[in-house]
Amino acid sequence: MGTQRKGAIVGYAEWPTVRRYDGPRRFMLEQWMDLAAEALADAGLVLEDVDGLVCGTLREANMFVPATVVEYLGQPVKFAEFVDLGGATGTGMLWRAAAAIELGLCDVVLCALPGLPIPSNPDPRDRPPPEARWLGSTSNAWGSPQAEFEVPFGNVAQNAGYAMIAAHYEARFGSCERARAQITAQQRASAALNPLASFYEKPVTIDEVLASSMIAEPLRLLEIVMPCAGGAAVVLASPEKAKKSPHRPVQITGYGESLTIKTPTFAEDLAVTPVAAAAATAFARAGTTPAAMDLLALYDCYTITVLLTLEDAGFCPKGAGAAFLAERNLAFDGDFPVNTHGGQLGVGQPGLAGGLLQPIEAARQLMGRAGPRQVRDVNRALVTGTGGVMSEQVALILEGA
Q1: Predicted TM-score of the model (pTM)
Q2: Strand 79-82's sheet: what is its strand order?
Protein backbone atom coordinates (compact mmCIF):
# COMPACT_ATOMS: atom_id res chain seq x y z
CA MET A 1 0.00 0.00 0.00
CA GLY A 2 1.37 3.41 -0.92
CA THR A 3 1.29 6.55 1.20
CA GLN A 4 -1.43 9.17 0.86
CA ARG A 5 1.32 11.69 0.08
CA LYS A 6 0.35 14.13 2.81
CA GLY A 7 3.77 14.79 4.36
CA ALA A 8 6.29 16.71 2.26
CA ILE A 9 9.75 18.21 2.70
CA VAL A 10 9.33 21.98 2.38
CA GLY A 11 12.62 23.36 3.70
CA TYR A 12 16.02 22.45 5.04
CA ALA A 13 19.23 23.76 6.57
CA GLU A 14 22.71 22.45 5.86
CA TRP A 15 25.83 23.90 7.41
CA PRO A 16 29.09 23.88 5.45
CA THR A 17 31.29 21.02 6.58
CA VAL A 18 34.56 21.97 8.24
CA ARG A 19 37.48 19.57 8.52
CA ARG A 20 39.11 21.38 11.45
CA TYR A 21 36.57 23.29 13.50
CA ASP A 22 38.11 26.20 15.39
CA GLY A 23 34.97 28.16 16.24
CA PRO A 24 33.36 28.69 19.64
CA ARG A 25 32.21 25.70 21.67
CA ARG A 26 28.44 25.38 21.58
CA PHE A 27 25.98 23.07 23.29
CA MET A 28 24.14 20.73 20.96
CA LEU A 29 20.89 22.33 22.14
CA GLU A 30 22.12 25.66 20.80
CA GLN A 31 22.99 24.03 17.51
CA TRP A 32 19.54 22.40 17.40
CA MET A 33 17.86 25.78 17.83
CA ASP A 34 19.93 27.47 15.12
CA LEU A 35 19.40 24.64 12.63
CA ALA A 36 15.67 24.67 13.33
CA ALA A 37 15.48 28.44 12.80
CA GLU A 38 17.33 28.23 9.48
CA ALA A 39 15.23 25.33 8.20
CA LEU A 40 11.95 27.01 9.18
CA ALA A 41 12.99 30.25 7.48
CA ASP A 42 13.84 28.27 4.35
CA ALA A 43 10.40 26.65 4.48
CA GLY A 44 8.57 29.97 4.94
CA LEU A 45 7.30 28.86 8.35
CA VAL A 46 7.77 30.02 11.94
CA LEU A 47 8.35 28.17 15.19
CA GLU A 48 4.70 28.57 16.17
CA ASP A 49 3.76 26.39 13.18
CA VAL A 50 5.71 23.44 14.58
CA ASP A 51 3.69 20.77 16.36
CA GLY A 52 6.01 17.78 15.92
CA LEU A 53 9.70 16.99 16.15
CA VAL A 54 12.07 14.09 15.68
CA CYS A 55 15.43 13.98 17.48
CA GLY A 56 18.63 12.01 17.50
CA THR A 57 21.41 11.79 20.09
CA LEU A 58 21.84 14.83 22.32
CA ARG A 59 24.88 15.29 24.55
CA GLU A 60 22.95 17.27 27.10
CA ALA A 61 20.43 14.49 27.78
CA ASN A 62 20.71 10.71 27.80
CA MET A 63 16.98 10.38 28.55
CA PHE A 64 13.87 12.37 27.57
CA VAL A 65 15.63 13.91 24.59
CA PRO A 66 12.48 15.18 22.79
CA ALA A 67 11.20 16.81 25.99
CA THR A 68 14.58 18.47 26.50
CA VAL A 69 14.46 19.94 22.99
CA VAL A 70 10.82 21.03 23.34
CA GLU A 71 11.60 22.79 26.58
CA TYR A 72 14.60 24.56 25.05
CA LEU A 73 12.66 25.64 21.97
CA GLY A 74 9.73 26.82 24.09
CA GLN A 75 7.30 25.26 21.65
CA PRO A 76 4.89 22.49 22.74
CA VAL A 77 4.31 19.66 20.24
CA LYS A 78 1.73 16.93 19.68
CA PHE A 79 4.19 14.37 18.29
CA ALA A 80 7.78 13.57 19.30
CA GLU A 81 10.15 10.76 18.40
CA PHE A 82 13.72 9.73 19.20
CA VAL A 83 15.59 7.75 16.53
CA ASP A 84 18.76 5.72 17.12
CA LEU A 85 19.81 4.15 13.82
CA GLY A 86 23.38 5.38 13.45
CA GLY A 87 23.94 6.69 9.94
CA ALA A 88 20.36 5.75 9.05
CA THR A 89 19.00 8.07 11.73
CA GLY A 90 18.39 10.96 9.32
CA THR A 91 16.40 8.96 6.79
CA GLY A 92 14.61 7.15 9.61
CA MET A 93 13.57 10.50 11.06
CA LEU A 94 12.04 11.67 7.81
CA TRP A 95 9.72 8.77 7.13
CA ARG A 96 8.51 8.81 10.73
CA ALA A 97 7.76 12.52 10.40
CA ALA A 98 5.90 11.99 7.12
CA ALA A 99 3.92 9.11 8.63
CA ALA A 100 2.94 11.22 11.63
CA ILE A 101 1.61 13.94 9.33
CA GLU A 102 -0.26 11.37 7.25
CA LEU A 103 -1.87 9.97 10.40
CA GLY A 104 -3.08 13.44 11.33
CA LEU A 105 -0.96 13.62 14.48
CA CYS A 106 0.62 16.92 13.50
CA ASP A 107 1.09 19.38 10.62
CA VAL A 108 4.71 20.57 10.76
CA VAL A 109 7.61 18.41 11.95
CA LEU A 110 11.15 19.53 12.63
CA CYS A 111 13.98 17.00 12.19
CA ALA A 112 17.44 18.21 13.18
CA LEU A 113 20.84 16.65 13.77
CA PRO A 114 23.63 18.83 15.11
CA GLY A 115 26.83 17.51 13.58
CA LEU A 116 29.65 16.36 15.75
CA PRO A 117 32.49 16.98 16.19
CA ILE A 118 31.50 20.61 16.73
CA PRO A 119 32.53 20.58 20.39
CA SER A 120 29.88 21.38 22.93
CA ASN A 121 30.88 23.33 26.01
CA PRO A 122 33.44 21.16 27.81
CA ASP A 123 32.62 19.42 31.04
CA PRO A 124 34.98 21.03 33.56
CA ARG A 125 35.13 17.82 35.58
CA ASP A 126 38.15 15.63 34.97
CA ARG A 127 36.51 12.68 33.25
CA PRO A 128 37.80 10.35 30.55
CA PRO A 129 36.18 10.72 27.10
CA PRO A 130 33.42 8.24 26.26
CA GLU A 131 34.53 4.91 24.82
CA ALA A 132 32.67 5.69 21.62
CA ARG A 133 35.49 8.06 20.75
CA TRP A 134 37.79 5.17 19.95
CA LEU A 135 35.42 2.22 19.61
CA GLY A 136 33.08 3.77 17.06
CA SER A 137 29.91 1.66 16.76
CA THR A 138 31.45 -1.14 18.83
CA SER A 139 30.07 -1.65 22.33
CA ASN A 140 32.59 -2.65 24.99
CA ALA A 141 29.94 -2.57 27.72
CA TRP A 142 29.71 -5.45 30.18
CA GLY A 143 27.47 -8.13 28.74
CA SER A 144 27.79 -6.94 25.12
CA PRO A 145 28.34 -9.78 22.60
CA GLN A 146 30.87 -7.50 20.89
CA ALA A 147 32.84 -7.13 24.12
CA GLU A 148 33.10 -10.91 24.44
CA PHE A 149 33.44 -12.14 20.88
CA GLU A 150 34.89 -9.25 18.83
CA VAL A 151 36.85 -6.66 20.79
CA PRO A 152 39.40 -9.19 22.16
CA PHE A 153 40.20 -10.26 18.59
CA GLY A 154 40.62 -6.77 17.15
CA ASN A 155 37.33 -6.54 15.24
CA VAL A 156 36.63 -3.03 16.44
CA ALA A 157 34.82 -0.05 14.91
CA GLN A 158 33.70 0.46 11.34
CA ASN A 159 36.91 0.24 9.32
CA ALA A 160 37.44 -3.40 10.25
CA GLY A 161 33.85 -4.40 9.49
CA TYR A 162 33.60 -2.70 6.10
CA ALA A 163 37.02 -3.99 5.11
CA MET A 164 35.88 -7.52 5.96
CA ILE A 165 32.82 -7.06 3.76
CA ALA A 166 34.89 -5.67 0.88
CA ALA A 167 37.46 -8.47 1.16
CA HIS A 168 34.72 -11.10 1.14
CA TYR A 169 33.07 -9.50 -1.87
CA GLU A 170 36.31 -9.50 -3.87
CA ALA A 171 37.12 -13.10 -2.94
CA ARG A 172 33.66 -14.17 -4.08
CA PHE A 173 33.01 -12.01 -7.15
CA GLY A 174 36.40 -10.72 -8.24
CA SER A 175 38.14 -7.39 -7.88
CA CYS A 176 36.00 -4.28 -7.57
CA GLU A 177 38.93 -2.02 -6.66
CA ARG A 178 38.68 0.20 -9.74
CA ALA A 179 34.90 0.43 -9.46
CA ARG A 180 35.19 1.59 -5.86
CA ALA A 181 37.76 4.20 -6.88
CA GLN A 182 35.41 5.35 -9.63
CA ILE A 183 32.71 6.00 -7.02
CA THR A 184 34.98 8.35 -5.08
CA ALA A 185 36.35 10.12 -8.16
CA GLN A 186 32.99 10.78 -9.79
CA GLN A 187 31.35 11.89 -6.55
CA ARG A 188 34.29 14.22 -5.90
CA ALA A 189 33.65 15.74 -9.35
CA SER A 190 30.25 16.80 -8.03
CA ALA A 191 31.66 17.89 -4.66
CA ALA A 192 34.10 20.16 -6.49
CA LEU A 193 31.07 22.31 -7.43
CA ASN A 194 29.47 22.21 -3.97
CA PRO A 195 30.62 25.14 -1.78
CA LEU A 196 29.25 23.37 1.31
CA ALA A 197 31.62 20.42 0.81
CA SER A 198 34.94 19.88 2.55
CA PHE A 199 36.41 18.92 -0.83
CA TYR A 200 35.00 21.91 -2.72
CA GLU A 201 37.18 22.59 -5.79
CA LYS A 202 39.23 19.47 -4.99
CA PRO A 203 38.43 16.74 -7.53
CA VAL A 204 40.49 13.53 -7.67
CA THR A 205 41.16 10.94 -10.34
CA ILE A 206 40.64 7.20 -10.14
CA ASP A 207 44.41 6.71 -10.14
CA GLU A 208 44.78 9.13 -7.22
CA VAL A 209 42.24 7.16 -5.23
CA LEU A 210 44.10 3.92 -5.99
CA ALA A 211 47.38 5.56 -4.96
CA SER A 212 46.06 6.70 -1.57
CA SER A 213 47.20 4.92 1.57
CA MET A 214 45.81 1.52 2.48
CA ILE A 215 43.85 1.89 5.72
CA ALA A 216 42.05 -1.43 6.20
CA GLU A 217 42.75 -3.79 3.34
CA PRO A 218 41.30 -3.59 0.71
CA LEU A 219 39.92 -0.11 1.57
CA ARG A 220 42.12 2.93 0.91
CA LEU A 221 42.12 6.38 2.49
CA LEU A 222 40.02 8.07 -0.20
CA GLU A 223 37.38 5.32 0.01
CA ILE A 224 36.53 6.19 3.62
CA VAL A 225 34.53 9.19 4.84
CA MET A 226 36.38 11.99 6.57
CA PRO A 227 34.93 13.12 9.93
CA CYS A 228 34.10 16.80 9.94
CA ALA A 229 31.93 19.38 11.67
CA GLY A 230 28.54 20.48 10.38
CA GLY A 231 24.83 20.06 10.94
CA ALA A 232 21.54 19.63 9.12
CA ALA A 233 17.79 19.97 9.59
CA VAL A 234 14.66 19.27 7.54
CA VAL A 235 11.09 20.57 7.84
CA LEU A 236 8.13 18.46 6.72
CA ALA A 237 4.61 19.82 6.42
CA SER A 238 1.02 18.89 5.61
CA PRO A 239 -0.42 20.03 2.26
CA GLU A 240 -2.10 23.05 3.85
CA LYS A 241 1.05 24.22 5.63
CA ALA A 242 3.18 23.42 2.56
CA LYS A 243 1.38 26.22 0.71
CA LYS A 244 3.43 28.70 2.75
CA SER A 245 6.70 27.36 1.36
CA PRO A 246 8.31 29.11 -1.63
CA HIS A 247 9.67 25.76 -2.82
CA ARG A 248 8.26 22.79 -4.69
CA PRO A 249 7.13 20.32 -2.00
CA VAL A 250 8.99 17.01 -2.04
CA GLN A 251 6.82 14.11 -0.98
CA ILE A 252 8.00 10.88 0.67
CA THR A 253 5.93 8.47 -1.38
CA GLY A 254 7.63 5.28 -0.23
CA TYR A 255 9.77 4.11 2.64
CA GLY A 256 11.23 0.92 3.99
CA GLU A 257 13.38 -0.02 6.98
CA SER A 258 15.29 -3.20 7.79
CA LEU A 259 17.57 -4.24 10.65
CA THR A 260 19.13 -7.70 10.78
CA ILE A 261 22.43 -7.51 12.67
CA LYS A 262 24.67 -5.09 14.50
CA THR A 263 28.00 -6.36 13.17
CA PRO A 264 28.86 -8.46 10.09
CA THR A 265 30.29 -11.17 12.35
CA PHE A 266 26.72 -12.43 12.69
CA ALA A 267 25.58 -11.86 9.09
CA GLU A 268 24.22 -14.85 7.20
CA ASP A 269 25.79 -13.54 3.97
CA LEU A 270 28.35 -10.71 3.96
CA ALA A 271 27.48 -9.78 0.39
CA VAL A 272 23.73 -9.33 1.02
CA THR A 273 22.63 -6.37 3.12
CA PRO A 274 19.37 -5.15 4.70
CA VAL A 275 19.22 -2.62 1.84
CA ALA A 276 17.44 -5.30 -0.20
CA ALA A 277 14.41 -5.53 2.09
CA ALA A 278 14.27 -1.79 2.84
CA ALA A 279 14.45 -0.76 -0.83
CA ALA A 280 11.95 -3.40 -1.96
CA THR A 281 9.44 -2.13 0.61
CA ALA A 282 10.02 1.51 -0.40
CA PHE A 283 9.56 0.81 -4.10
CA ALA A 284 6.41 -1.23 -3.42
CA ARG A 285 4.88 1.47 -1.23
CA ALA A 286 5.60 4.12 -3.85
CA GLY A 287 4.35 1.90 -6.68
CA THR A 288 7.54 2.38 -8.67
CA THR A 289 10.77 0.62 -9.67
CA PRO A 290 14.53 1.26 -9.73
CA ALA A 291 14.36 2.02 -13.46
CA ALA A 292 12.03 4.96 -12.78
CA MET A 293 14.54 6.82 -10.60
CA ASP A 294 16.01 10.05 -11.97
CA LEU A 295 18.56 10.41 -9.19
CA LEU A 296 20.17 8.34 -6.44
CA ALA A 297 21.28 9.69 -3.08
CA LEU A 298 22.96 6.67 -1.49
CA TYR A 299 24.61 6.57 1.91
CA ASP A 300 28.34 6.33 1.28
CA CYS A 301 30.36 5.94 4.45
CA TYR A 302 32.64 3.68 2.37
CA THR A 303 32.80 3.01 -1.35
CA ILE A 304 31.79 -0.62 -0.82
CA THR A 305 28.54 0.66 0.75
CA VAL A 306 27.52 2.32 -2.52
CA LEU A 307 28.38 -0.74 -4.60
CA LEU A 308 26.40 -3.09 -2.37
CA THR A 309 23.48 -0.67 -2.22
CA LEU A 310 23.26 -0.51 -6.02
CA GLU A 311 23.10 -4.30 -6.18
CA ASP A 312 20.72 -4.88 -3.29
CA ALA A 313 18.37 -2.05 -4.32
CA GLY A 314 17.88 -3.78 -7.67
CA PHE A 315 19.90 -1.72 -10.12
CA CYS A 316 22.07 -4.67 -11.11
CA PRO A 317 22.47 -8.36 -10.16
CA LYS A 318 24.52 -9.48 -7.18
CA GLY A 319 28.21 -9.51 -8.07
CA ALA A 320 27.71 -7.34 -11.17
CA GLY A 321 28.26 -3.96 -9.51
CA ALA A 322 31.75 -3.37 -10.90
CA ALA A 323 30.68 -4.10 -14.48
CA PHE A 324 27.55 -1.97 -14.01
CA LEU A 325 29.60 1.01 -12.81
CA ALA A 326 32.18 0.68 -15.58
CA GLU A 327 29.49 1.60 -18.11
CA ARG A 328 28.14 4.62 -16.23
CA ASN A 329 29.09 8.09 -15.02
CA LEU A 330 27.89 8.93 -11.49
CA ALA A 331 28.70 12.65 -11.58
CA PHE A 332 25.92 15.27 -11.59
CA ASP A 333 26.28 15.65 -15.38
CA GLY A 334 26.69 11.93 -16.03
CA ASP A 335 24.19 9.42 -17.33
CA PHE A 336 23.57 7.89 -13.88
CA PRO A 337 23.74 10.68 -11.25
CA VAL A 338 24.55 9.45 -7.75
CA ASN A 339 25.20 11.72 -4.76
CA THR A 340 25.25 14.91 -6.80
CA HIS A 341 26.44 16.92 -3.78
CA GLY A 342 29.55 14.74 -3.61
CA GLY A 343 28.20 12.28 -1.08
CA GLN A 344 29.84 12.03 2.29
CA LEU A 345 32.99 10.91 0.47
CA GLY A 346 33.11 14.39 -1.06
CA VAL A 347 31.32 16.51 1.55
CA GLY A 348 32.59 14.84 4.71
CA GLN A 349 30.67 13.14 7.50
CA PRO A 350 29.45 15.54 10.22
CA GLY A 351 28.46 12.83 12.68
CA LEU A 352 24.85 11.66 12.51
CA ALA A 353 24.02 14.78 10.49
CA GLY A 354 25.75 13.05 7.58
CA GLY A 355 22.65 10.89 7.25
CA LEU A 356 20.55 13.97 6.44
CA LEU A 357 22.87 15.21 3.67
CA GLN A 358 21.62 12.66 1.14
CA PRO A 359 17.88 13.42 1.53
CA ILE A 360 18.61 17.15 1.59
CA GLU A 361 20.50 16.90 -1.70
CA ALA A 362 17.70 14.84 -3.25
CA ALA A 363 15.16 17.45 -2.09
CA ARG A 364 17.39 20.25 -3.38
CA GLN A 365 17.52 18.62 -6.81
CA LEU A 366 13.77 17.95 -6.88
CA MET A 367 13.12 21.58 -5.90
CA GLY A 368 15.45 22.75 -8.69
CA ARG A 369 17.83 24.49 -6.26
CA ALA A 370 21.13 22.72 -7.02
CA GLY A 371 22.66 25.53 -9.08
CA PRO A 372 25.59 24.52 -11.32
CA ARG A 373 25.16 20.84 -10.51
CA GLN A 374 21.41 20.72 -11.17
CA VAL A 375 20.30 17.54 -12.93
CA ARG A 376 17.73 18.03 -15.67
CA ASP A 377 14.18 16.71 -15.41
CA VAL A 378 14.42 15.34 -11.87
CA ASN A 379 11.09 14.19 -10.43
CA ARG A 380 11.86 11.01 -8.50
CA ALA A 381 14.80 9.91 -6.34
CA LEU A 382 15.90 6.98 -4.19
CA VAL A 383 17.54 7.93 -0.90
CA THR A 384 19.19 5.46 1.49
CA GLY A 385 20.62 5.55 4.99
CA THR A 386 23.07 3.07 6.52
CA GLY A 387 23.79 2.59 10.19
CA GLY A 388 26.55 0.60 11.86
CA VAL A 389 28.35 -1.84 9.57
CA MET A 390 25.64 -2.38 6.94
CA SER A 391 23.44 -3.08 9.96
CA GLU A 392 20.50 -0.68 9.84
CA GLN A 393 18.98 0.38 6.54
CA VAL A 394 16.34 2.90 5.51
CA ALA A 395 15.21 3.61 1.95
CA LEU A 396 13.02 6.51 0.85
CA ILE A 397 11.38 7.39 -2.46
CA LEU A 398 11.13 11.16 -2.88
CA GLU A 399 8.95 12.74 -5.55
CA GLY A 400 8.35 16.34 -6.50
CA ALA A 401 4.74 17.42 -5.98
Answers
A1: 0.94
A2: 79-82, 52-55, 108-115, 230-237, 8-14, 250-259, 392-400, 380-387, 295-297
